[in-house]
Design goal:
By secondary structure, this protein is an all-alpha fold. Helix content is 77%, strand content 2%.
């Protein structure tokens, strides 16, 4: 069956967006299940928490690695490997209740996060210039859309069906996505030359593992261990940086990453990832707090998940709006507006935390800002890096969002566990604990807006992308011809 040329870009986008939503959903579906898992697996809470930690670790490690591999060996090929990892991980989780098997399965699922930056890079290579900005906006927003829809969907499954069902669903959709990619998505001819930087990959992986373990386990591991992990992470940074600057084909081109357009975009991504994750964490828990706290609504797990649903809808609707703003005013302007909108959402949350309508409105405003921000971030990155480094650069940007989310998770957990109230042996956070979280997240969004203003102002359009792609493709072709 042949596909009309005019329809092919839409099919490529649909296939890649489906992959992005699935991967994003898989990262969050286990969250509603966490209170039940100690009983299901007959394991202590500290061990069960690895189902979140291991996904965070493998996602952080493999996203930049697979992004670089995609630039070098073929983005479609590496995309299929990442989707295969998702299917394997989902299958392991669907077929077992053993904690060790579940942790291994979640590790495979985490590695699949690289699907999103790889998809963005494929869109840049394959779509007409006029479609690039809107398409990457939608692809990037799948990170937030999947998270917003994943928790409500998982709560419904946990409430009304066997918990393994949600992983079987991921297996089925994952296999369907593999088929879509094989049938619809072409392999890009744009490649970067050189050898894969194995020492650089090992160094970056070691740094990320030490940093994220220290962040995510700070409340459960000994102070000595946490300090040692931070110390090793700090020690590895200059050593890895010196090596990357001296190697001919670095995993991360630090000279490019130090450009203001890339540096401040990545720092902004970290803070935006922090601010977005605080919204998801606080909303799901806030509405479930018991009524004896004076502010709690005592809602069910299903209601808590459904409170995030309007935010997911807003993210779907606003990604094309973000693309139009970026085309008209540039992605730098778009990202500033998005960060301010997120901060405004937290201002709303400061005054509407005692009724469910106000909570939903505040959470939806933050999600709307996140959708616009996530849509603008890859456009900023692509305007600042060569087309042959698109997947690696977007992988690094996605990594920064992941690190922001990890830091957020630790800070939110610490604040909610430190400022508490007790009654009849029950302990819960006081309302001021949530307000502190909202203030911190709002400040993070404001600082992100400030960092974005430091990015050199330059109006970028799809025409710029076309010129960059043509120049880079010409260089790649010349290099290939001379090598041959």
């Amino acid at each position: 069956m042949s596909v009309r040329p005019a329809a092919r870009p839409r099919l490529i986008l649909a296939a890649l967006a489906s992959c992005g939503v699935l991967v994003s959903v898989s990262q969050t579906i286990v969250v509603p299940l966490l209170p039940e898992l100690p009983g299901i697996t007959h394991s202590p809470v500290s061990d069960v928490s690895w189902l979140i930690t291991v996904t965070l670790l493998t996602g952080a490690v493999f996203t930049p690695l697979l992004g670089r591999a995609g630039d070098m060996y073929g983005k479609r090929r590496v995309l299929l490997i990442a989707l295969g990892s998702m299917v394997i991980g989902s299958l392991l989780c669907a077929s077992s209740s053993d904690l060790t098997v579940l942790i291994v399965g979640r590790a495979f699922q985490g590695a699949a996060v690289a699907v999103v930056p790889l998809g963005i890079s494929i869109l840049r290579d394959e779509l007409p210039p006029s479609r690039v900005i809107p398409s990457i906006a939608l692809m990037s927003s799948t990170l937030g859309v999947g998270a917003a829809f994943g928790i409500p969907a998982a709560t419904l499954v946990v409430q009304y069906s066997n918990w393994h069902t949600m992983f079987w669903i991921c297996v089925g959709i994952g296999l369907f996505d593999v088929l879509l990619v094989l049938l619809i998505v072409p392999e890009s001819a744009v490649r970067t030359s050189g050898r894969f930087d194995v020492p650089g990959a090992l160094g970056l992986s070691a740094f990320l593992v030490c940093l994220l373990l220290a962040v995510s386990k700070s409340s459960t591991w000994s102070t000595t261990t946490i300090v040692a992990l931070y110390a090793v992470a700090v020690l590895l940074v200059p050593l890895w940086g010196i090596f990357e600057l001296r190697t001919r084909s670095p995993l991360v081109d630090l000279r490019v990453s130090a450009r203001p357009a890339v540096l401040f975009t990545n720092l902004g991504a970290l803070l935006i990832g922090f601010s977005f994750y605080a919204n998801s964490l606080s909303t799901a828990q806030l509405v479930q707090e018991p009524t004896w706290t004076g502010y709690g609504l005592g809602a069910s797990i299903v209601v808590s998940g459904l409170c995030l649903l309007p935010g997911g809808v807003a993210m779907v609707l606003l990604s094309p709006v973000s693309a139009r703003i970026s085309s008209a005013r540039g992605p730098r302007f778009t990202l500033i507006i998005a960060s301010i909108l997120m901060a405004a959402g937290y201002v709303v949350r400061l005054f509407t935390s005692s009724n469910i309508a106000g909570i939903v409105i505040g959470a939806t405003v933050v999600s709307a800002g996140t959708a616009v921000a996530y849509s603008a971030l890859p456009a900023l990155i692509m305007h600042a890096v060569p087309v042959t480094e698109t997947a690696a650069a977007n992988g690094l940007n996605t990594l920064m969002r992941t690190i922001g989310s990890a830091i957020c998770s630790t800070i939110v957990a610490t604040v909610l566990a430190s400022v508490t109230i007790a009654k009849d042996g029950q302990v819960a956070p006081v309302l001021s604990a949530y307000l502190i979280v909202f203030v911190i997240a709002g400040v993070a969004a404001v600082v992100a807006a400030g960092l974005v203003t430091l990015i050199p102002a330059r109006r970028q359009t799809p025409v710029h992308l076309e010129a960059t792609a043509k120049a880079s493709a010409s260089t790649t072709a010349s290099t290939t011809a001379s090598t041959t």
